[in-house]
Amino acid sequence: MTRKQQVEPYDVLIAGGGLVGASLGGALAQAGLRCCVLEAVPFAAADQPSFDERTIALTWGSRLIFAGLGVWPQIIATDAEPIRSIHISRRGGFGICRLDCTGMGVDALGYVVPTRVLGRVLLDRLQQALGVDYYCPARVEAVQPAVDRVTVQVKTEQGSLQLRGDLLVVAEGGRSSLREQLGYKVYARPYEAEVLLTTVSTGQSHNGRAFERFTEHGPLALLPMRENRYAVVWTLPAARVDHLRACDDAQFLAQIQADFGYRAGIFTAPGIRLRYPLARSRVEPLAQQRSVLLGNAAHLLHPVAGQGFNLGLRDVAHLAEVLATAHQHGEDLGSDRVLQKYTALRRDDIRRVQGFTHGLMTAFTQQWPGLSLARQIGLLLVDSLPLVQRRLLQHTMGLAGPRSQLSLGLPLARPTGENE
Predict the structure, then answer these.
(1) Helices marked H in 202-283 — which ranges?
(2) 229 in any annotated domain
(3) Angle of helix 336-365 relative to helix 308-328, nearest 10 degrees?
(4) What are the tens digits of pLDDT across the range 5-55?
(5) Does residue 9 sit within a domain?
(6) Sign of the CA dihedral 32, 33, 34, 40?
(7) Alpha carbons 35 and 48: distance in angstroms, whole number
(8) At 127, phi and psi to the nearest 5?
(9) Looking at 215-330, which runs of residues are DSSP E strands?
């Protein structure tokens, strides 16, 4: 589907119309900027990477951002299930940690939302917004940064287009080809593991409780869904993923029950089993030559603690505010000054979250002498110290560090005299 209503040049060109790109397009439209969103894979296609059968654990901070964008009522009305508490443990150990939303004075620590539901809400909003042109399928084949603009060559079903803008945002994901064309340096390292995704049902009510269970094979997360189902996110060696995908349903349920235990009840009705490779990466700089990287194009991290998309959504909130402010002051949106301001806002948060997720994986998977006891004591200490819990939750809920206007649940202001 292609929708065009504006004339060139654009304020912002967005390469990638997945969850991150669509969120940014909606935010920029709210602030009165003219932007063009280019997505290579149609929403309904089986190989659409952003809107597949996965679920996303949205933090409370992400809920506030979506509230600021004006789409939270649609999200919560569809298929969003609140996470009210989290139970953390290690198989074979005595230490446990329990985190609860009441200690933070909120209704939930986060929400579990299917990506297809979230994608539909964001695309509906994007296609209704004034000031946004949306091309899909449309693939950026070449990019030419210049002193005063950036030009992209785009292939669509109707033919080739040449589009110009002040700034190019690359939100294509972790395998972005544009990122390479623009000369960004990517520091990547694969994990010696993959993630197995599926769903299971249980006979007992989950009451909004999520689990993070560190097993001998890797962390196993259960995220509450509607109708007493759980989304399963299980990090495993590739060979074990092969084995579990080849099992019949009864064999698979026996394996996950043995590794997890019976704290969540007896598992039944497993869903389709999907696999995804795991890696961590960082990119430096985050912005250059009238371009900026967003979401997985800028950083990949381990899914433990469910921080990946939430980190990218904070990218969106900060970039949208920086660009909206620059636009109101008549600044060049692709200037080094504007891009450096965004980079300064995001650098520490990205490093902190990447360090936290990788450190958590290391601490709970390595078998160094004395580490097992330290893990158990650490869990017990966090469980018994409310101040430590609160500090931990501030970070995992996306409430630490500099807050953008959207992250406070407030919409971006349009310039005086502009109405949608």
Answers:
(1) 238-246, 249-260
(2) no
(3) 170
(4) 445 799 999 999 999 999 999 999 999 999 999 999 887 666 666 655 689
(5) yes
(6) negative
(7) 22
(8) -75, -15
(9) 219-224, 229-236, 267-268, 274-284, 287-288, 291-293, 299-300
Vertex 192 angle, CA 189 and 213, to 5°: 115
- pTM for this predicted structure: 0.93
Q: Which amino acid is at 8?
A: E
Q: How many CB atoms lie within 10 A of CB 385?
A: 12
Question: Is residue 4 scored above 80 in pLDDT?
Answer: no
Summary mean pLDDT of the chain: 90
List the domain range (segments joined by +) for residue 327: 2-80+111-188+280-362
Tokens encoding 130 = 């004034």
List the helix and strand counts (H, then E) for the chain.
11, 21
pLDDT at residue 44 in the model: 64
In a domain, 181, yes or no: yes
CATH of the domain at 125: 3.50.50.60
Query: Considering its fold, how many domains does the chain have in total?
Result: 1
Could you read off the pLDDT of 353-394 as tens digits, one per residue?
999 888 887 766 666 555 566 666 777 778 888 898 999 999
Sequence length of the chain is: 420
What is residue 158's DSSP assignment? T
Is residue 148 domain-resident?
yes
